[in-house]
């Protein structure tokens, strides 16, 4: 159908390589996550049965095949894929994941089932941004876990997306294999773990150090701000368990360096398990420096923000060269909880205001990226202004389409049994701008039909149809024929600037509603309309 | 309008704003008119924060577009930039679904008409 072509959206349905691997653990319904995974999975997965291989390939793939844009989008790819992995495993053993979920899905917790339904629709229609459907699926499971007040209001998708993008890869990983992670947490955390960035999921002993470092450097760039948005109450303990020694030592170093902690306004902290045991401080330092070097090379956004785990906002960046605190081997005492810990980037100001601003900017740019995915043909566009232009144009075009289609459906599908008072717009012309436009066609059709005096009976039916427009997905109505002139008139009216009609029509329509289409009023309206048109 | 009613069903902020608007339309409340008065003051505050290193002109441009988007998205005037983007994304999705559903319906009805002759 043309609708698919119109937006140019396509499902990247690769083969079935991915789901079997990811679903190897818990039994998961293939269908739902499969599509999402495919959508996000641009590179074929290695045929490894176990999850770690999947993760490794996930980690290495962005390195090998970075998207055209900057690292941020690579991160976005990672995010999408991780979200896919997350969801693939998440659906059935949700109960197990509850403790680990909170960080990942702060908001979708409150997303209603309707969202899931629409997600299903999207899936079927081959539409939708990468992270959205993924986020919505586990929504019901995660409902009670949301702790972030700011996101409870239905910003499910984006906050989920944001949450995932933030170092809550940790949360995701823990999410994916809660059993393993808990074991790992209990056991001695392996050396050279993922450290600060991910911490949680990376405590698996099998994970090669280099991959972890790589991952960390990639993920490090992910917005630290996102972490702040995740409700992490229940996650903290598990995170603290899962943190590797390196992460804790790193953080400890940074903390010691700063000497004090600044608490952000929002209080969520994903807790860095600074208290976890340290195994290899020297090795940690090495990893740290490696990641640090990698970080330096990366773009500014992804530069030094290597703090997936909780990191207090500090003033530690007074000395960028020593940000990681090379000379500290021991960990600091248990960091305070309930803080949003953001590590300032290398060479950036570290006061609370600029940090908060940076967090905000990163959030906003993440959402812009998401919108970019949603709006077709925006991938090449760079720059906020142009991007916003595209978004605005797209929204306007969608609204116009809805308007046009509603008119078309009106002509195809008039209604006889309408209660006029319900549908007549009495005060529809507000100074809001474009939004009332979709309302116009119905009114236009109504009034124009009313204007054609000779056809009183037909007018009434047409009017009801114009007004009624019982457009619901489930209802199909019988159709009446509208006069050709009627259709032409509506077309003409459609092309008029609605705002021009606004002021005049309000009173007319009100009187129409009140009188029930008396002839006198009709003539009056006709005259008005003739002037207008 | 019926299409709008279809859109107004979700529990998102823009959807609630749309419902409010439709209810006002239905009831013909005369007091409406000023619905968009609460221009988001936060947006003005956020104007300078939008761009990383954006110079003055760019920031002004971006801000203008954000305001335009606010007018487009129902209930957008009250939202800050961040929330506005979230609502925009959801709104775009809903519009896409709406358009596709309506298109399907229109095609179906066309076919029915043709069959009926």
TrEMBL record, chain A:
Composition bias type Basic and acidic residues, residue spans: 204-217, 291-300, 312-338
Family of this protein: Belongs to the bHLH protein family.
Compartmental location: Nucleus
A Pfam family assignment: HLH
Gene3D superfamilies: Helix-loop-helix DNA-binding domain
Comp. bias (Basic residues): 259-269
Record's keyword terms, sorted: Nucleus, Transcription, Transcription regulation
Designated name of the protein: BHLH domain-containing protein
Primary residence: nucleus
Region listing for Disordered, in residue ranges: 181-338
Chain ranges of the BHLH domain: 348-398
Biased amino acid composition, Polar residues: 274-283
One annotated Gene Ontology cellular component of this protein: nucleus
UniProt entry tagged with the keyword Secreted: no
Organism taxonomic ancestry: Eukaryota, Viridiplantae, Streptophyta, Embryophyta, Tracheophyta
MF terms (GO), sorted A to Z: DNA-binding transcription factor activity; protein dimerization activity
Organism annotation: Musa balbisiana
Automatic annotation (TrEMBL), chain B:
GO cellular component: nucleus
Keyword flag Transmembrane helix: no
Cell compartments where the protein resides: Nucleus
Keyword vocabulary terms for this entry: Nucleus, Transcription, Transcription regulation
InterPro entries named in the record: bHLH_AtIBH1-like, IBH1-like
Family matches, as CDD domains: bHLH_AtIBH1_like (cd11444)
Protein name, entry field: BHLH domain-containing protein
Organism: Musa balbisiana
């Amino acid at each position: 159908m043309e609708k698919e072509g119109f937006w140019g959206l396509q499902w990247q349905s690769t083969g079935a390589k991915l789901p079997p691997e990811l679903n190897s653990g818990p039994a998961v319904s293939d269908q739902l996550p499969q599509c999402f995974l495919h959508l996000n999975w641009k590179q074929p997965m290695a045929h490894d049965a176990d999850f770690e291989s999947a993760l490794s390939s996930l980690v290495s793939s962005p390195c090998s095949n970075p998207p055209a844009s900057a690292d941020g989008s690579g991160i976005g790819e990672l995010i999408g894929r991780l979200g896919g992995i997350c969801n693939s495993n998440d659906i059935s053993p949700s109960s197990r994941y509850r403790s680990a979920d909170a960080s990942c899905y702060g908001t979708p917790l409150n997303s209603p089932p309707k969202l899931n339904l629409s997600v299903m629709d999207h899936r079927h229609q081959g539409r939708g941004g990468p992270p959205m459907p993924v986020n919505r699926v586990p929504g019901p499971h995660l409902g009670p876990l949301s702790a972030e007040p700011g996101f409870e209001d239905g910003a499910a998708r984006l906050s989920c997306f944001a949450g995932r993008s933030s170092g809550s890869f940790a949360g995701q990983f823990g999410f994916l294999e809660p059993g393993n992670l808990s074991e790992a947490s209990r056991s001695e955390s392996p050396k050279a773990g993922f450290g600060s960035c991910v911490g949680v999921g990376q405590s698996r002993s099998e994970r090669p150090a280099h991959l972890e470092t790589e991952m960390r450097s990639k993920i490090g760039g992910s917005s630290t701000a996102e972490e702040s948005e995740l409700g992490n109450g229940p996650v903290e303990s598990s995170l603290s368990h899962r943190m590797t020694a390196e992460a804790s030592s790193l953080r400890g170093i940074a903390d010691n360096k700063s000497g004090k902690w600044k608490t952000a306004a929002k209080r969520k902290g994903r807790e860095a398990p600074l208290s976890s045991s340290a195994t290899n401080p020297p090795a940690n330092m090495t990893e740290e420096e490696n990641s640090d070097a990698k970080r330096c090379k990366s773009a500014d956004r992804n530069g030094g923000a290597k703090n997936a785990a909780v990191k207090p906002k500090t003033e530690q960046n007074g000395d960028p060269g020593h940000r990681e605190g090379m000379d500290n081997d021991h960990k600091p005492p248990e960091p305070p909880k309930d803080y949003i810990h953001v590590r300032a980037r290398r060479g950036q100001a570290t006061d609370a205001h600029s940090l908060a601003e940076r967090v905000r900017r990163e959030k906003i740019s993440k959402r812009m990226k998401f919108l970019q995915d949603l709006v077709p043909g925006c991938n090449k566009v760079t720059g906020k202004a142009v991007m916003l232009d595209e978004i605005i144009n797209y929204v306007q075009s969608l609204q116009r389409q809805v308007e046009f289609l509603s008119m078309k459906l009106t002509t195809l599908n008039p209604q006889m049994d309408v209660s006029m008072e319900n549908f007549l717009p009495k005060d529809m012309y507000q100074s809001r701008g474009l939004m009332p436009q979709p309302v116009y066609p119905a009114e236009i059709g109504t009034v124009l039909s009313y204007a054609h005096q000779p056809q009183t009976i037909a007018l009434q039916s047409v009017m009801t149809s114009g007004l009624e427009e019982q457009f619901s997905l489930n209802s199909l109505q019988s159709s009446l024929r509208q006069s050709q002139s009627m259709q032409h008139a509506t077309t003409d009216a459609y092309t008029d600037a609605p705002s021009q009609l606004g002021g005049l029509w309000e009173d007319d329509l009100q009187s129409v509603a009140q009188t029930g289409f008396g002839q006198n009023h009709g003539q009056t309206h006709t005259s008005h309309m003739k002037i207008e048109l | 309008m019926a299409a709008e009613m279809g859109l107004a069903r979700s529990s998102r902020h823009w959807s609630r704003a749309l419902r409010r608007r439709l209810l006002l339309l239905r009831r013909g409340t005369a007091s409406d008119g000023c619905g968009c008065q609460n221009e988001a003051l936060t947006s003005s505050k956020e104007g300078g924060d939008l761009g990383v290193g954006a110079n003055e002109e760019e920031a002004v441009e971006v801000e203008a577009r954000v305001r335009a988007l606010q007018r487009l998205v129902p209930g957008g005037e009250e939202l800050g930039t961040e929330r506005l983007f979230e609502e925009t994304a959801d709104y775009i999705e809903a519009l896409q679904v709406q358009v596709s559903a309506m298109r399907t319906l229109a095609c179906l009805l066309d076919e029915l008409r043709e069959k009926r002759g």
